Amino acid sequence: MPEIEAPDMKETRTAKANVDAFIGRATKWREELNKLRAILLDSELTEEFKWDQPCYTFQGKNVAILHGLKESCALGFFKGALIKDVHGVLTRPGRIRRRDAGSSSPLCEKLRR
Question: Residues 19, 47: contact at Cβ < 8 Å?
Fold first, then answer.
């Protein structure tokens, strides 16, 4: 009799495949996206795939999202305006919804090394 897979395991496998494909399609920033992904996966966050981008959640709440753009890549934080940025590595891309570690930030400069 075949083993029945739990729905959350299937969702996790699907998310991983979608994120693998997302990073695989990146013509730029592939190395940086993989490094950011590894950092995120080394935490208690769950990897999901939402809005056609890798999204990382904690207890079902959105925490961060990866962006691969033409001229930059970014790690965006939901409710990032609430983060205290004592080292000045985050930029504010828009109104108070998010903060990013954009490709020109000191964090991304370190990832390129």
Answer: yes
